[in-house]
Design brief:
With about 140 residues, the protein is of the alpha+beta class. It has a single domain, classed as Thiol Ester Dehydrase, Chain A (Roll). It has four helices and seven strands. The chain has a five-stranded antiparallel β-sheet with strand order 1-4-5-6-3, with helices on one face. It has a two-stranded antiparallel ribbon with strand order 2-7.
Amino acid sequence: MGKTSFEYERKPFYYETDSMGIVHHSNYIRWFEEVRVAYMTDRGYSYSRMESEGVMIPVLGVDCKYKIPVKFDQPVIIKGNIDLFDGLRLNVSYEIVDKETGKTCVTGHSEHCFVRSSDFRPIRLTKTHPEMAEIFQ
């Protein structure tokens, strides 16, 4: 199964910075979520639609490596890659790059599973929601 790649562009808001004038480390995790939600929306299957159909994608684990600080109003591109999708699990890797220089600022990875929202029990998306599963393959 090949990788599915996607990109999302944004600039940090002032409130996302700390007293040193750089993006606070906790915000990168939020940006990872933004890119996942944008990915689904761009493929015609919004996060809201997924939840209305009784599916949730909880985070099982996340890591983040900080290489170069990102500053207020600095345009960045968040690149995402689906590294694993087997119907039950989803692993995504991320790279945040400075739009102007192309230098890598942050890398990360998140692990997820698919569950029914009614009881939080795991589901295999390829069996229960094949149309939704197609956007991750």
